[in-house]
Amino acid sequence: MNDSNIQKLLAAARKEQAPEVPFNFENSVVSAIRRDQRRSTPLSFFEQLNQLFPRLAAAAVVIIGLCIATEFYFTQSETTTTADVQQAAEEWLFASN
Amino acid sequence: MSAVGENETVKDEAELLARIRNGSPDDFGEIVRQHQGLVFSILYRYERDAHLIEDLAQDTFLKAWKALEQFDGRAPFSHWLSRIAVHVALDHLRKKQRIKKEIGFDELGEDALDWLQGEEQRDELEPGRAREILELAMRELTAEERLVLTLQEIEGKSVKEICELTDWSSAATRVRAFRARAKLKKILLKMETEKK
């Protein structure tokens, strides 16, 4: 491509019009600034705790679920567990004698 | 604008900015309204997607808001804001460059392709088509080369103005502009040959 064509290309690109600024653009900037300010403001202990609440609640539900499952398991296998414990105790007593 | 008129504007801006520094982001909305046209007119040279241009413009004003304390009021606010917009554009070009680099002719419209395949002396080209061709060709340039070429060849800025906008030295600007022009010529020649 020769220089004259390159100049024509650049000259044509120069004429391109800038797009219209969207309606209410300044309001979206102000909202973005407010969001940014909220993000960067240091949080108090209770605010941080409040933010963590969903995770803490989920962790508590998991722990409670595990406890119930463990309890249920041991209730079902009570005889076996008791027998195991008894055997272990007798072996220990026998071994000590 | 006369020197007296310009001084008045700078003074009014300084007063408005002093008010904003002690006020709320709502007051900053007035500054945005006054300068949004300028920011969009800088950024659209580097991005074609209207939504992305809006995001970049928002980013520019957000950066300006955060750095407002650094504006000393010695020059018009628009100069300071233009520098921020140019830096936002440069960061955007760097990100874009990491994503895609290869030239795909399928991205060109029929008119743009016809022009590329044309005779030695070609007709005037519609601005949008010229932009398509340049956008594709500049994809092989570095972000800095693209920026300097756009500022100098399309926006018609002088080396001094480019130095002020980019914080580059005069020598670095000249070298980048020279390399960018040579590279663009080579790429356009390659595109023309591949298409014929």
Strand and helix map with partners:
The complex is a heterodimer of chains A (97) and B (196).
Chain A (H helix, E strand, L loop, with lengths): L2 H12 L10 H16 L4 H32 L1 H19 L1
Chain B lengths: L2 H19 L3 H19 L6 H17 L10 H23 L10 H7 L10 H12 L4 H12 L4 H8 L3 H26 L1
Give the overall shape of chain A: elongated
The oligomerization state is heterodimer
Structural class of chain A: mainly alpha
Main β-sheet description of chain A: none
Q: List unreliable stretches of 5+ residues of chain B.
A: none
CATH class of the largest domain in chain B: Mainly Alpha
Strand elements of chain B, count: 0
Q: What is the count of helical runs of chain B?
A: 9
Question: CA-to-CA gap between the ends of chain B?
Answer: 49 Å
Share of residues in strands of chain A: under 5%
Q: Using only CA atoms, what is the Rg of chain A?
A: 36 Å
Structural features, described:
The complex is a heterodimer of chains A (97) and B (196). Chain A has helices at 3-14, 25-40, 45-76, 78-96. Chain A starts with a helix and ends with a helix. Chain A is mainly α and 97 residues long. Chain A has one domain (25-96). The model of chain A has no long low-confidence stretch (mean pLDDT 84). Chain A is built from four helices and no strands. Chain B is elongated and about 60 Å long. The mean pLDDT of chain B is 86. Chain B folds into two domains: 1-99, Rna Polymerase Sigma Factor, Chain: A; 104-196, Arc Repressor Mutant, subunit A (Orthogonal Bundle), CATH 1.10.10. With 196 residues, chain B is an all-alpha fold. The relative contact order of chain B is 0.09. Chain B has helices at 3-21, 25-43, 50-66, 77-99, 110-116, 127-138, 143-154, 159-166, 170-195. In chain B, helix 1 packs across helix 2 and helix 3 (50-66) crosses helix 4 (77-99). Chain A binds chain B through residues 1-6, 8-10, 12-19, 21-22, 25-30, 32-34, 36-37, and chain B through 25-26, 28-30, 32-33, 36-37, 40-41, 44, 50, 53-54, 57-58, 61-62, 65-66, 120-122, 124-131, 133-134, 153-156, 184-185, 188-189, 192.
